[in-house]
Every structure is written in C-alpha cells, then in structure tokens.
Amino acid sequence: MNIKKIISLLLIGVMMLGVVGCTKEEPAKEPTEKPGEVIEEVSTELEDKILVYSTHSEDLIAMVADAFEKETGVTVEFINLKGELSERVEAEKDNPQADVMFGGASNLFMDLKAKDVFESFDPEWAGILDPLFKDSDNYWFGTIKTPVALFYNTEMVDTADLPGDWSDLANEKYKGQLVFRNALSSSARVMYSALLQQYERNSSLEEGWDFMKSMDKNTKQYFDSGSLMMQSIGRKEASISFSTLNDILDNKLNNNLPIEIINLKSGYPVITDGIAVIKNSPHPVAAKTFVEFAGSAKIQSMLANEFNRMPTHPDAYAQSPEWMRDVEFAIMDVDWIDLSAKQSEWMQKWDTEIKDTGKDVK
Amino acid sequence: MVSFQTDQGPSLINYEYIFKTQGSLIAIRNTLIMGLLTVFICGFIGTFLAFFVHYFDFPFKKILDRILLLPLVVPGLIIVFAFVQLYGESGMVTKTLEAVFGLQKPLYSLSGLPGILLVHAYTQYIYFYMNVSVAVKELDKSVLEASINLGASPFMIFKSVIIPYIRPALISSSILTFMTSIGSFSAPNIIGGGYKVLTTQILLAKANLYMNLAASQVVVLFLFAMTYMTIARYYERKVTFTSGVREHVIEPVKIKSKAANLLMVIVALSVIIMIFLPIITIIILSFVKPGTWMIDIYPKDFGLENYIIIFTNARSLAPFLNSIKMSLMAALLAVSVAVPAAYITTKTQTRLKPVFESLLMLPFALPASAIAINMINGFSSLLLGKWIMLPLAYFISMLPMAVRSVTISYARLKDDYGEASTNLGAGKVRTFLKIIFPLIAPGIWSGLLLVFIRSLGEYTISTFLYTAGNRPISIAMVNSIFEFEIGLAMAYGALVLLLTFIGSGVLKKLQVYVE
C-alpha cells in the first residue's frame, strides 16, 4: 500500500502549501521589503510608472493616461473596476497595489477616508475648488460633477404631460411609465436618498416614505443593469427614467436614443466624482503628480469637451462646451455628509419594506 | 481559509436578523427551492443529452459534443443579457410570438423563479452532461449485451444496469450544480425581480456596507452547501459500485427503427435549439452596428465595426492571450492536485478523509468574492499584484470541479486491478502510470476541460485580483456592458465562444493522441 502513502504525502504537501499560503501572512518577508519602501518614500524622484484604479470608462482613463505619459514619461497602468472598486481598495489596505483611486462618488471617498486608506495631500489647484467639492482635510478632491437627472423618450410623452417636479411622479397618470435602477446602483441610491432627505428637511421623513411608496406603485420595473434600462426606454417599454447626465448624453449621442432631460423645480442632486492618493502607495511621487495632472484645468476641460463630464475647476468650466455653461436645470440642495450617514439604513428599508417586490420584475 | 471565514466574526445579532426577519426567511426558503429545482432540471437535461450524444449514433456528433460545452464559457452576465434580448419584454422571441399570435401583451414574462431556472438550466446542465458522458463512455458493453441476451426489457436494463453505472456521476454533478446555483447572482439579480435569494441579499447588504450581515449571510449559504454535500456523499458511499473496467467499450448504438429515430431527433433538436439560440444571439448581436440595437427589436444594420475595434486596439487583444494562459495553467494545476486528492477520498480509509473532503469542496461552497478577499489577505505581501495570483485563484476555486470529475472515474475503479498489478511485481509508480492512470483518464480530461472553460469566463474573482498585466477577457466583456457598448461585449463573447470551440477540439484531439 506504499503508493497510497506516497500519494497521501504528496497531497498533504500540496494542500498544506495551499492552506498555509492562504492563511499565513509570511511575516519573514515583510521586514526585508518595508525598509526599501521607506527609502523610496523619502526620495522625491519621479517613479517610472503608476497604477490607477478607476471607475471611469475605458476611453476616458486611456485618454488621461496617454496625456500624462506624454507629459511626464511616467507609464500609467490602469485597472477599470465598477462596483468592486472600494472593496478591493479596502482589501489591499495592508499592502496597497494601486497609487491613485480615480473616480467614484464622494460618499465612497468619505467612507474610505474613515477607513484610513488615503493619503492627505495638497494639489496646486485644490485651493480654487469650492469646499463642496473636496475633503476638508485634503484626503480626496472632486474633479468631476455628475448630475443625476430625469429624462424621457420624446416619442412617447408630450411636453405638456411631463412632470414639473419629483412629487408629480407619485401621480397615477405615470403608472407603468417609470423604470428605475435598483438599490445596487450608486446613482439610484443617491437619488432615492436625496429625495428622502428633501422630505425629511422640508416636511417629514414619514411623508417621504409615502411618496416613495406611491412612486413605487407607478414604477414598472427596477433594473439591475443600466444598459437594459436604457434599452427598455429606447424600445418604448416605458417612457421616463433617471440616470447620470453623462450616461443620458452618451446614449442620446452614441446610441441614438430619442431622449431629453426634464427640468424639475426642486432640481437634481449633483454627485461629486473624486480622486485620491492611496496611503503607502508603491509610487508616491508619481501618484501625487498624477493627481495634480488629472485635476488640472487642462484635463478637466478636456474631459468636459470629450466626455461631457462637468468640471469642478472654475477655469475648466469656462472652457467647457456651451450646453454645460448655461445649464438649465436647478441643482438640488443636498447635505452630503448627512446623506452619507443615512443612506445605508434608508436603502435597506426601501428595498425590504417599501419597494413592491411583486412589481420588481425583469 | 476556514479561519478567515470565522474571523469575520458575525455576532449573533446578525443571525437573529437573518432568521427572524420575514424577508430574509423568504430569501432562505427561495434559495433552497431554487437550488433543488435547478439540480432536477439540469439533471434531466444533462443526462438526456449525455446519452443522446454518446450512446446513440447520428451525424455531426462530435461537433455537437463541443458546442454543448459553450454555455459555460461566457460570464453569467452576458448569458443573462442574451436571454433578455431573446425572451425579455422586447425580446426577439417574445415579439415574434406576439406578432404570430396577434397578441397585445407578451405571452410570458422572463422573471422570477421560472426566469432564473431557465438561465440556470441553460448554464448548469453542463456539469451533468460532462460527468454523465464520462460514465456513459465507460459503460461495459458485455454487461449490456448479457442483460439483453437474458431478456431484460430496456427499462430493466436502464434501471439495474445503467443507473448504477452513472450514479456516481449523477451525485457528483448534483453537488456541483447545487453549489453553483445557490451561489449564482447574475440571474437572480437581473431577471429574478422580486424573487429574493441569499445572494441578492448579500449584494444588498454589501452595497449598504453592512459587512457583518453580509458575512453571516455567506455563512448560512455555506452551511447549505456543506449540508447538501454531506447528504449526497453519505448516499454515494451507501451505493458505491465498482465494475469491471471497459474490456468492451460500448460503441454508439445505431437506432434501427426509423420512427424511434425521428422521435429522438425531434426531442433532442428542441433542447438543442434552446441551447443554441442564446449562443446565436450573442453572435448576431456582435455584428450589430454600434448605436442601433438599443431601439430596434430585430437588428437591421450589420457590420464588422465591433470586431474592427477589438482587432485594431492592442489593449483589447491582450485579454485573449492572458485568459488562455491563465486558464490553461489553472486547469493543469487543478488536475494535478485532483488526481491524488480524489484517490485519497475514494480509495483510502484514512481518518483524515472527511477533513480532506470538506477542504477540497470548500472553495465551491464559498462565494467567489469571499475566495478573492481571502486570497488578498493570505498572499498579501508575497504575491499580491503579481501575475500568478489570478491563475492561482482560479485553481483554488475550480479545484472541486476537477476533484469531482476524477472522483467519478475512481469510484468505479476496482481496487483489484492495482493489487493484481502489484502482486505481479509491478512497481507502485508503474502500477499507477500503466494501470490506474489510463483507467481514470476520461475523468481527468473532463476535469481539465471543465476547469479550463470555467476559468475563461470567470468574472467575480477576476475583478478583485487582476492587474494591468493580466486583464482577463471576462473583465473586458463585462466592462463594455457597463459602458453601454453591448455590441462590443457580444463581439468579445463571440470570440471567446469560438476560442472555446477550437480549444475543446484541440483538447479532444490531444486526448485521443495521448490515449
């Protein structure tokens, strides 16, 4: 039965390797590596590459990365993540892989700042920014404003029948006409929470939930995918929905959807998309140089003109496309810190108690 | 990895929430129903197809065998998209049926449990198909002939000869299917609608940053998976059956009666059409011009734009190479561990056996994201950010599949052969190489293929572990969907399908060559 023994031993060896590998931190390696990193941190020499984690679209990061490479000679590697970005940054906290986190809503940055994964730093342009668009301790900065707007299929609704404000969406005449994203979409989470916050501030939270309940009755479907939601509007399954302004424009211009934005009295919440240097990053000097670069007026206005992303930098704003400068819609007055604190609780409640799961089809 | 699971230390409050809240209880019940129904449906389809393809003789058999593996290779999200384009409210099939029958409303809605089951049946029959195929190929012709000569009815033969042969395959596959289906989230999330299951609850808890709640939900899911496996393994041990080995390999049976032939073909054809449709949809959509398909129900403008984008951009091409290299590596690693591992769990009597067994199946019971995060914690300073990390993670998460495939072959292997060989003076190594290895080869090949195909399409683990140097194809595909470039995503999908088709062909050729 020797063969069995040999095989068992072999297997045990391999399994041990696997298990040990998974569980041990390999402490022996750490001390030898750490000093090297410290020395690097002290030096101010520009490293020859950086790694950027981003939520932005492939084309957008590629354009910024190419421009940065051209100007500084630093190679930019980027990883394009969607919902998993913050989880990955947090998981890598003890041994950061990335240098910069580029993109993601401000509440994400607030949450990650509290978890101590960013490095405070003061870019040249930070002083010009409205305090609304940056962290008070300089841990992160907003470089893009992302409004979340209501839009409609122009072939399905007369302008006279459009809602005048959010509260109109509770009106029965919109029954079956609304399609929205579910509570997993970050823009939808902001939208629903911002509406609840308006009610809480102006009347009562109770009334807010009543409104959400009535709006839910009119909602035909909640989508887990933005693409499928846009498709359902394009194929006239429903007529009204909300999304980020750049997604609306993207689908209007590139996918030829007959859609327009609806102006509402109480306006739209504007999400701030941030950028931050990751703490203990492998290439700290280049990381700061990149943030300095990506937030500059030049790059912000490039993104405004090429990708319809609204800049936070006043100089970039002056060079943005015409439509952006004379924005027609009102901006909702949102208390972002308050929102960030209450959002989770509200969304858990909305998903389990308010949303009619029977109608939550697709 | 076990320790990390408990390290997340869910307190009792979370469990109280899980087991006392109405919505959460429904999700638990739904998860179990979904898992069991998926096993039954997939078991039926997979077993039927395995017999159809390997037991009977008909044209285009080999190509069909390869095409039937394709649904496993595309990430769940893409498959669900293809389904929505076919059977959704404005889907091609839905609208066609509406037009044909002159209906005002869609005939059905692709949602809830039936919708999820449709997608699961579509993607998960493959476990049954592959494992039962191996068993069918090992059926002993002499036993079948003997029973026919003794006057057994076809039903009797099926019940007392064939079933015992394929039983280990059925049990193994049901374990894989159950674990995959209760852990799947693309289908429940996108088309499940109001049908809440544990995975959708986990995603919600994560989005709300209730990480401890999410962790306890993961533990509940994990317990279900382990319980199912324990019961199945207990049953498997009770009915273990070994046979004389393929002295007479079966030859495909030619059906003599024309009517029976026709009936078989019709039944199989309808199943096969259902399996083909989404694949064809992916291929068709990949040729649709960007910017038109969002409005049109039946695509009108076709062009090569999406492919031109992929082939002219170096960044878009690299993922193909990366994925092939990493999947191949994961598959080889998985099989080389699975062969000795399966040996221990089936042929030895060590007291550590149950420990091994659960360790080996553990990765399947854990959600992919948990595996990835544990990998990050575990390899933190050593390998994180290195190229090897991702194939290693594929290997760990796919190992159970390889182990199960090999186990099936071992399970029917009589110990006598090895003993006879040793008694006749052959060395241990020689016995293994000359006697045991050839006999378990079909299991090894199917394990290799399964892991390879699954790794090609893996998405969740990849999002946590990929680096700029090994961006896999699944990431490129799913990101395109997020960026409203569905045509591009489908073009990637179509290329992966082609790749798998060729890849599995090469593997089959290699198998024939080696054997």
Radius of gyration of chain B (Å): 23 Å
Into which percentage range does the β-strand content of chain B fall? Answer: under 5%
The secondary-structure element order of chain B is HHHHHHHHHHHHHHHHHHHHHHH
Overall pLDDT confidence of chain B: 79
From the spread of the alpha carbons, the general shape of chain B counts as: globular
Q: Quick one: how many beta strands of chain B?
A: 0
* Mean pLDDT across every amino acid position of chain A: 83
Most extensive contact: A-B, 81 and 82 residues
Q: Characterize the main sheet of chain A.
A: 9 strands, mixed
Q: Summarize the amount of helix of chain B as a percent range.
A: over 70%
Helical residues, percent of chain A: 40-55%
The general outline of chain A is globular
Q: What string gives the helices and strands of chain A in order?
A: HHEHEHEHEEEHHEHEHEEHHEHHH
Poorly predicted runs of chain B are 1-10
Q: What is the helix tally of chain B?
A: 23
Task: Explain what the structure shows.
- The complex is a heterodimer of chains A (362) and B (515).
- Chain A is of the alpha/beta class and 362 residues long.
- Chain A has helices spanning 2-23, 29-42, 58-72, 85-91, 106-114, 186-202, 205-218, 226-234, 245-253, 284-294, 297-307, 314-318, 322-325, 336-354; strands at 49-54, 75-80, 100-105, 118-119, 141-153, 178-181, 219-223, 240-244, 259-261, 270-278, 310-311.
- Chain A is 46% helix and 17% strand.
- In chain A, strands 1, 2, 3, 4, 5, 8, 9, 10 and 11 form a 9-stranded mixed beta sheet that branches.
- In chain A, helix 3 links the parallel strand 1 (49-54) and strand 2.
- In chain A, helix 5 packs across helix 14, helix 6 (186-202) crosses helix 7 (205-218) and helix 6 (186-202) packs across helix 14 (336-354).
- Chain A is globular.
- Chain A starts with a helix and ends in an 8-residue tail after the last helix.
- Chain B is an all-alpha fold and 515 residues long.
- In chain B, helix 17 crosses helix 18 and helix 19 packs antiparallel against helix 20.
- At the A-B interface, helix 1, helix 2, helix 3, strand 2 and helix 4 of A face helix 5, helix 11, helix 15, helix 17 and helix 20 of B.
